[in-house]
């Protein structure tokens, strides 16, 4: 009898997992079902460019169903809950799916209503987010008519998807207003709960330098307790205030709501506790988790889902064959950081190694933590690879799931010249 | 490795003053650690949060962030800031003798 593998979520992680599993198993060996509540797959890195008029939503959205290989079933429906003791998924329309293996790929959701006042007066008028298609498109309109004043970019709290995106927004906003000849009339401020521009020391210093060079003010250790849209103020829990004329807020994130309704599956934020190296859920041996849905200390980013996919499908096969799982995932993440004016930085890191300078993937390659035209071109080329390589579940020649070390410059270690 | 002296005992700490070995912490160190963080009057609510941090660390290997504290400790985020004005998660972790809560990346 064929195994049934149910994948919840048809985004980056769910789609590439389904397509890799379909190649691994003949149709009579495994039935593969992807469940998602809608049929619109957004290329999420593209949302960053929408407010500046460099992309439209129509350019970055496609059918979820059409990204799935022949032989993968797509079931459109909302998951109500999973019963991990009986191996059953219950959908809101009353349907029930039994599974042998469940893959949770439902990502992270935005929770703007958890911050007092954020969705109150001024929301979508002078307080926006670019993390949703609707928000990004509305912000494009607001920026086009912005005639100067205080633009504040605020990350409410970690974790967020693509943790560098708010910084990229600042860099691109600087370029946008310069090109419009009005940079001197815009005061740009980045407000973060972290104690620096970013979490990791080397990277944080580099990015703080980039912010400074572009005249972006940095406010750190600010925990937003309330957004007063009408009065134009962010109010911190500690009583500090930051005034704005236009605010771009990255709201709190959590896991999908069905996780909270599935006894034993998730944590207090609805993320799914996951083994950091095998990607097996801690709740049950036949549940695996990929991408933003996990509680792992890795970035919530598409590259993470891509590198995890390779490890996850191998472990699904090992589990079904009764073999031990391979603890192969090392937290490998890489991302391009757009800095404006056709340049970008590249960072590459894992659980144990912070983003360093050097080159990727080896000594001959793209420069790391350094602004370059080549990295910007890499970021642009990536969109095509996303649809045609990453989602179908292909590997890139020379790019491996585990992090390469050969091109990196380690701090405090003398590198021998050759 | 830096050290600190609390109630006459020498403790290993990191550069930011967080305990590196939570087992070297004892409850009687709390008043002195709290005073060093500017908290002179320890209330039952402070203790509740400090004990919660210890339990969460034992269960998960990391101290909770302020948001998770607000959701799970029974003390709201607003109240947490009243108790620990200079950052509840960090301050409470320091007083509770556990490592700095891991930031997410």
Could you please describe the fold and organization of this structure?
- The complex is a heterodimer of chains A (418) and B (105).
- By secondary structure, chain A is of the alpha/beta class.
- Chain A has three domains: 3-42 and 61-110 and 254-320, FAD/NAD(P)-binding domain; 112-253, FAD/NAD(P)-binding domain, CATH 3.50.50; 333-409, no CATH class.
- Helix content of chain A is 24%, strand content 26%.
- Chain A is built from eight helices and 25 strands.
- A five-stranded parallel β-sheet of chain A has the order 5-2-1-9-20, with helices on one face. In chain A, strands 11-18-12-13-14 form a five-stranded parallel β-sheet.
- In chain A, strand 16 (233-236) and strand 17 (241-243) form a beta hairpin.
- In chain A, helix 1 (12-24) runs parallel beside helix 7 (302-320).
- Chain A is globular and about 70 Å long.
- The termini of chain A are far apart.
- The relative contact order of chain A is 0.14.
- By secondary structure, chain B is mainly alpha-helical.
- Chain B has one domain (3-95): Arc Repressor Mutant, subunit A (Orthogonal Bundle).
- Chain B has five helices and two strands.
- Chain B has helices at residues 30-36, 44-60, 66-72, 77-83, 88-95, and strands at 3-6, 9-12.
- Chain B has a two-stranded antiparallel sheet with strand order 1-2.
- In chain B, helix 2 packs across helix 5.
- The longest helix of chain B has 17 residues, at 44-60.
- The mean pLDDT of chain B is 91.
- Chain A binds chain B through residues 157-159, 163, 194, 199-200, 221, 223, 225, 237-238, 252, 268-269, 297-299, 333, and chain B through 65-68, 71-72, 77-78, 80-81, 85-87, 102-105.
Describe the secondary-structure layout.
The complex is a heterodimer of chains A (418) and B (105).
Chain A (H helix, E strand, L loop, with lengths): L2 E6 L3 H13 L5 E7 L3 E3 L14 H4 E3 L8 E5 L2 E5 L4 E4 L4 E3 L2 E4 L3 E3 L16 E2 L4 H13 L3 E7 L9 H15 L6 E6 L9 H13 L3 E3 L4 E5 L4 E4 L4 E3 L2 E5 L2 E3 L1 H5 L25 E3 L12 H19 L12 E8 L2 E7 L7 E5 L3 E4 L4 H18 L17 E2 L9
Parallel strand pairs in A: 1-2, 1-9, 2-5, 9-20, 11-18, 12-13, 12-18, 13-14
Antiparallel strand pairs in A: 3-4, 6-7, 7-8, 10-19, 15-16, 16-17, 21-22, 23-24, 23-25
Helix pairs in contact in A: 1-7
Chain B lengths: L2 E4 L2 E4 L17 H7 L7 H17 L5 H7 L4 H7 L4 H8 L10
Antiparallel strand pairs in B: 1-2
Helix pairs in contact in B: 2-5
């Amino acid at each position: 009898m064929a195994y049934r593998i149910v994948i919840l979520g048809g985004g980056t992680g769910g789609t590439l997992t389904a397509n890799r599993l379909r190649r691994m198993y003949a149709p009579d060996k495994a039935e593969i079902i992807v469940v998602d509540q809608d049929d619109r797959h957004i290329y999420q890195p593209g949302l960053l460019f929408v407010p500046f008029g460099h992309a439209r939503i129509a350019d970055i959205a496609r059918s979820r169903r059409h990204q799935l290989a022949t032989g993968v079933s797509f079931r459109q429906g909302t998951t109500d809950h999973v019963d991990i003791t009986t191996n059953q998924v219950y959908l809101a329309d009353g349907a029930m799916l039994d599974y042998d293996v469940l893959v949770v790929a439902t990502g992270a959701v935005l929770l703007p209503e958890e911050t007092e006042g954020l969705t109150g007066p001024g929301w979508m008028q002078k307080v926006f987010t670019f993390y949703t298609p609707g928000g990004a498109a509305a912000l494009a309109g607001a920026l086009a008519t912005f005639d100067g004043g205080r633009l504040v970019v605020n990350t409410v709290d970690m974790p967020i998807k693509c943790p560098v995106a708010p910084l990229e927004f600042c860099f691109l906003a600087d370029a946008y207003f310069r090109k419009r000849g009005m940079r001197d009339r815009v005061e740009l401020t980045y407000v973060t709960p972290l104690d620096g521009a970013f979490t990791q020391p080397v990277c944080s210093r580099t990015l703080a330098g980039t912010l400074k060079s572009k005249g972006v003010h940095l406010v750190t250790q600010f925990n937003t307790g309330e957004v007063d849209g009408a009065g134009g103020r962010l109010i911190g829990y500690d009583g500090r205030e930051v005034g704005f004329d236009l605010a771009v807020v990255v709201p709190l994130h959590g896991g999908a709501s069905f996780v909270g309704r599935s006894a034993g599956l998730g944590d207090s934020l609805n993320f799914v506790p996951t083994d950091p190296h095998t990607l097996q859920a801690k709740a049950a041996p036949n549940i695996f988790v990929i991408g933003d849905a996990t509680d792992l200390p890795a970035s919530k980013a598409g590259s993470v889902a891509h590198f995890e996919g390779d490890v996850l499908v191998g472990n699904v096969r090992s589990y079904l064959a009764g073999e031990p799982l391979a603890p192969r995932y090392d937290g490998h993440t890489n991302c391009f950081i757009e800095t404006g004016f056709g340049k970008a930085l590249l960072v590459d890191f894992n659980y144990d190694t912070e983003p360093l300078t050097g080159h990727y993937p080896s000594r001959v390659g793209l420069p790391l933590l350094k602004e370059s035209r080549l990295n910007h071109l890499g970021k642009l080329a990536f969109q095509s690879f996303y649809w045609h390589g990453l989602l179908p579940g292909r590997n890139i020649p020379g790019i491996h799931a585990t992090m390469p070390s050969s091109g990196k410059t380690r701090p405090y270690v003398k590198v021998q010249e050759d | 490795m830096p050290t600190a002296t609390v109630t006459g005992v020498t403790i290993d700490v990191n550069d930011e003053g967080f305990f590196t070995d939570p087992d070297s912490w004892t409850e009687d160190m709390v008043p002195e650690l709290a005073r060093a963080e500017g908290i002179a009057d320890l209330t039952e609510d402070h203790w509740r949060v400090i004990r919660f941090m210890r339990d969460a660390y034992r269960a998960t290997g990391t101290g909770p962030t302020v948001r998770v504290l607000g959701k799970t400790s029974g003390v709201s985020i607003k109240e947490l800031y009243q108790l620990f004005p200079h950052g509840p998660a960090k301050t409470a972790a320091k007083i509770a003798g556990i490592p700095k809560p891991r930031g997410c990346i």
